[in-house]
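To: structure desk
From: M.T.
Subject: fold request, one chain
Message: Could you run this one when you get a chance? Sequence is below, nothing fancy, just the single chain.
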Amino acid sequence: MDVLSWDKFLEESLLENTYPPTKIKLYNRLLAHTDNFFIIAAIGAFVPGYLMLVSKKLIPSLALIEDNQVNEIKWLIQKCSDAISKTYDKNVAIFEHGMCACIGGLDRAHLHIMPMNKTANEKTIKESINLVLKKRKSGIASVEVDGYEFTNIHDINEIINGSKKDTYKISGKQLQFDDIQSNLDINNWPLSPRPLVTKGGHYVYFKNSTNASFLTDNNFQTQLGREIIFEIEKAANPSVKLMSDEILKKNEYANIWKWQEFAFKENMHKTMHDLAPELEKVTDNNFNFVTVSKKN
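Reply: Done. Structure tokens follow.
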């Protein structure tokens, strides 16, 4: 099942009589589209304003778009980022897990465009990246205890977090920001990872207005960018911190940043309502940019 099907999103938007729709469903979240890409309100919006840019063509990575589509995608990213910044008075982070084969069927190339608190500077963003890498035990391949090797991430976490250091042996190295900072040309995304992707490789692209950005071929677990932004918002946004605390009181194992666990439909609806006025103002249109809100 292609849960990011362009045909399905277009079909549902034509059937809706109101904008935003009264009830959020899987395929009625379309905000706008151009010749080759479309914009939807993204599932898992722990803050409003969270968008996803999706390729109309079924490809597994944005590194595989046509060369003549690069200007189009960069133009569309900029227009969406401007709309978010003006509407919410926030900065913007964009990120992609290229060739992710994401859990939940998100095999179609897509880019996340997410609001990020303005108080987050280069230092705090790097700290959040390092925190997430540590939580995920990124770079640690296995842990050996009493001659037994454990490779499952949950076992690794349990052993490292709950045991004395001299009782286990680590294979690998705990990664930090400096270990992953752009071993690929970040300024030439999305084309720079193409040779890697054509050989079946993966990459993670995370870009913001500071030097705390990276483009790496490390094969992380999915939703790395979402978890980083969640940690930033939790530290800087009291309402997100309060929401997180309330959820964790009920379920200490909840992963609030995972869209499979928390959809935040009210914020998806708010995103569509809030961003429509700014997107409708776009006039320098060279790529057949269309907003769904104007139709309704």
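Reply (cont.): Residues 101-105 have pLDDT under 50 and may be disordered. Let me know if you need anything else for the meeting.
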